[in-house]
Every structure is written in structure tokens, then in C-alpha cells.
Amino acid sequence: MKPLVLLLTAAVLAAAQQPSSAPAKSLELPQEKHLRNVRQITFDGENAEAYFSADDKWISFQRTAQLGGCDQIFVMKVPHDLKKEKLDPPKMVSTGKGKTTCAYLFPGAKKLVYSSTHLSDEKCPPRPDYSRGYVWPIHNTYDVFVAGRNGKNLKQLTTTPGYDAEATIRRDGKSIVFTSTRDGDLDIYTMDADGKNVKRLTNEIGYDGGPFFSADGKKIVYRSHRPTDPKDVADYQALLKEGLIRPTKLEIWVMDADGSNKRQVTKNGKANFAPFFHPDGKRIIFSSNMDDPRGRNFDVYIINEDGTGLERVTHSADFDGFPMFSSDGKRLIFASNRNSAKPGETNLFLADWVD
């Protein structure tokens, strides 16, 4: 699911991918002390939610290339040398129909999981009505699928009515964690890699989503909106009945992989999302608008699991989000509006991580 900035960008015109063979010096900002050899790897449209395969040789991501189009799922080889190696063009692996989101590669990178609306309608779902403020659509036609890295052998994993999306995979490939409305609220569930043995992990009123396993598979980090004021609860429930949520207040949470021991990490009352564990299992990288009084600009931050040691990672004047570490913690991939050729573009960037 895309954040506020990506859904409110200006219209993006279709353009050909034109890979660059070297990182631009302007991409490395002096305040960004954790990032080195920053390299742009996509060059037009809206590209986001890029995730490494377990061996760090591939990424999967979602991409919208043209005005009025829907996100589709792509895969791409990761360059070994950020300074010199030529980029391979990304390849679409989804059906090209409906809308897709949240792709994640299985160990071995021979297949991946993603969510799609194509079984319900080959066209893009309608955009939400913003007359009551900014909202995210929760399409009840999303289901979770698994397919080969070439897009073949597509298999549906979820069949219950409602929203099933935001799926990611445990490092051993045996368990999938995802978000669903199957029980009437937006909650987090796990299931086996074949779609069996579904287990509900959260049951509080509000949105729990965007889950990721820690590297050892023992913990899950996620974003959550927990309204407590009766008016906020009523607003949340009324919007959810219409397939909408208001994502302006999201906090980062962690729980054990069985759903126990839930604990809140951030407490700033802002929109914090896209959390991901550092491979050390002690730190969490995420996106937030906490430093923009208007709440429009997002940057990448890192924080200890216990909520201490908050540190800002990116400092561009544009959107930076969806950060993910490589399995060894030596690289970071993220999405950004920096260096855009046209208004509204969001591209993917790779960087070496420096602790």
C-alpha cells in the first residue's frame, strides 16, 4: 500500500527506462552519513515497495508507468558493483490486469508472493473520494497469489471475502504474514506457504498492517492505527465499511511471531510506516513525517526496538520511504522523489550502508 505522498503526486507521463551506469554525485547528501554510493536504479513512473530476495541478488517491486495506470509487479537483478555495473531492465511478472501490491520473493528467488485484484476486474479499481479528507482504499477484491519469478504458474492462496494483502515471507520460506479484513477489521495473520493454517495475530480495534518478520523469524514488526477516542473509533469503523482508512496517524509496533508480547516502538502521533528490522534484530528502519510540521514530507529513520536511539537517515527535501536492508545489513534500498525528471516520479535507490 502506497503512502500519502505517492497517492497525491502529480500525473506521471510514460517514459522509457534509461538506466545509468554510475551514481550521480548529487544523490549523496552530506547529512546522510549512513549512505554511500547512492545509485538510482529506476528512472520514470512511480516505483515503490522494493524488497531484496534472501540472497540479495534480486528485488521485487511495484510500478506504475503511465497516467491512470495501475501498479504492476516487477523483478530486477541487483547490481553487485554500485559504481560501475550496468543495470538490467526490470521485468513485469504480474498479469498486467487489475491492481497489484506488496511483492516478496521466496528464498531461492524462483517464486514470489503478491496481491492482486485481477480476478474481480481487469480494470483499475476506482480512486477513493477525498471529500472527507485523505484516505487509503482497502479494496476487498485483493487476494494473495504466488507465482514464478517469470510470472508463470500463478496460484491463488487466499479465497475468503475481503481484503487480503501486504504479504511478506519468513526467511525460511515456510510462513507468510499478511493483512486481512476476513474477521471484520484490519488485522495481521500468518499462514503456511501453501495458504493453509491461517492464524490471527492481532485483534484490537484499528488498522494493523505492513508486517515483516525479523531475520531470525522470531518477531514481527508492523504499523498500527489504534483509535481510542469514541469519535475516532466511529470514524474508523464507518470508513472501513466503505473500504477506506484514514492513515494520518500510524505507529510502529513489534510482537513475537506467535502474536504475543506486543509492544509499541514509536509514540509521536505522526504517520510512521514501512518498518523493517535490521539483520541484527535490535534496530528498526522506517519512514515518517515526524519532522515536517505540515506532515507532507517523509524521511527514513532508524530506531532501537525499545524506542530509544532515534536517528534520521535521509535528509532530502522530497519523499524518502520504503527502506529495506539487505540480508547482511550492508546495503539499503529505498524509494524517493529525489532526482526526478518529471513531477510526481518516485524511483528506487540503492546505497551502501555505513554504521
List the helices and strands and how they pair.
Elements: H1 4-7, E1 35-40, E2 46-52, E3 58-64, E4 72-77, E5 91-92, E6 100-105, E7 111-116, E8 136-137, E9 143-148, E10 155-156, E11 164-169, E12 175-180, E13 187-192, E14 199-200, E15 207-213, E16 219-225, H2 230-241, E17 244-245, E18 251-256, E19 263-264, E20 272-277, E21 283-288, E22 299-304, E23 311-312, E24 320-325, E25 331-336, E26 347-353
Antiparallel strand pairs: 1-26, 2-3, 3-4, 4-5, 6-7, 7-9, 8-17, 9-10, 11-12, 12-13, 13-14, 15-16, 16-18, 18-19, 20-21, 21-22, 22-23, 24-25, 25-26
Would you summarize the structure shown here?
The chain has helices at 4-7, 230-241, and strands at 35-40, 46-52, 58-64, 72-77, 91-92, 100-105, 111-116, 136-137, 143-148, 155-156, 164-169, 175-180, 187-192, 199-200, 207-213, 219-225, 244-245, 251-256, 263-264, 272-277, 283-288, 299-304, 311-312, 320-325, 331-336, 347-353. With 355 residues, it is mostly beta strands. The chain is globular.
